């Protein structure tokens, strides 16, 4: 069975606890603390596997957990780091927070691998807590807790062109005659229950990926039938081909069908109507000589608004090549950057809720010093040197109210902000 959505629970590894121990060697009766640090917990990493094209692997396994870090050992030995858990998904998989439906990651384009949950930091051993007044500390730092999150995986077809139309208008036949795809074809409503992809080869390296989007019904945008499951696949396509029965063999009105489908697209996502559209008036092999009123009406109705009509026969392939070359010309005029959803939800920030922080002004240089467990943990979760990490850092400061509090304390553009080992100049957005 084709699976294009799944809900799973992911959990990073807990950091190993710091160890409490003391040197016990011959001739060293009062050895100092030598407890090692705990190992970092394993991360949850999602990685694109180009050999996968469904989410079937997630239908029966619902919890995915990385390994915990080991506790530190005596003689200053660090605990072993927990193994990361790499979860393989097909290209085009969107990872959403199940509670808010916000996007955590879009595994498309150049984004082939992304850490979704960071393992907990290992706790410090008791050697770190020795002071002049306490030379034999009997405590160590516990490892940072694991993060657990329920996520929804959603696979969207990555295709340049989407075929839409009501059942039995010939979409599957058009896909099979113009690409390398071999869909099952039969005369049943909702015959195509899976989006099927094929590559249109126009020679000399020219071509594009085309998808047969399963048949639509009125009310699809409201979730009637399998509407939402189908409509979401159109979001990534760049050009929409309406396939209609120009011969009227199904007793349908092609013009009404196109209006109905566009209404469903608009109701689901108004941006979809901004995509270029083409009409494939199919089954002209079944039209009697001279009986082409439907095609003329289609042209009169849609071509003035820039939607070109191509009379075709998917069975005899008449007009199909001309249609495909025209679609390719539309694609050539468009940006070939894939549609990628921006990250809206940062899972690691949930672990920072409720943690305190302080803002002080350094009397020596006037820098604004921001410290506390909230800041320490945030910097531990985030790679500030990466573009994504820095964007998360900026978003974190804003959402946690830290920027607002800095402004309340009188910070001005160009002033220095210091967070442990990190320094940067403040500039208002």
Break the fold down into its secondary structure elements and pairings.
Blueprint: E1 5-11, E2 44-48, E3 63-65, E4 85-89, E5 93-97, E6 103-107, E7 113-117, E8 148-155, E9 161-164, H1 171-178, E10 196-203, E11 206-212, H2 227-231, E12 239-245, H3 254-268, E13 277-282, H4 293-302, E14 308-311, H5 320-332, E15 358-361, E16 368-371, H6 373-381, H7 387-399, H8 402-408, E17 416-419, E18 422-425
Parallel strand pairs: 1-3, 2-4, 9-11, 9-12, 12-13, 13-14, 16-17
Antiparallel strand pairs: 1-8, 2-7, 5-6, 5-8, 10-11, 15-16, 17-18
How does this model look, in words?
The protein is α/β, with parallel strands linked by helices and 429 residues long. The chain has three domains: 1-155, GTP1/OBG domain (Spo0b-associated Gtp-binding Protein, Chain: A); 161-332, Rossmann fold; 353-384 and 395-425, GMP Synthetase, Chain A, domain 3. 19% of the residues lie in helices and 22% in strands. The protein contains eight helices and 18 strands. The two termini are 49 Å apart.
Largest sheet: 6 strands, mixed
Helical fraction: 10-25%
At CATH's second level, what is the architecture of the largest domain? 3-Layer(aba) Sandwich
Number of helices: 8
CATH level-3 fold name of the largest domain: Rossmann fold
Beta-strand share of residues: 15-25%
- Major beta sheet, strand line-up: 10-11-9-12-13-14
Distance between the termini: 49 Å
In N-to-C order, the SSE pattern is EEEEEEEEEHEEHEHEHEHEEHHHEE
Large-scale geometry? elongated
Chain-averaged pLDDT: 80
CATH class of the largest domain: Alpha Beta
The CATH homologous superfamily of the largest domain is termed P-loop containing nucleotide triphosphate hydrolases
Give the tally of structural domains: 3
The total beta strand count reads 18
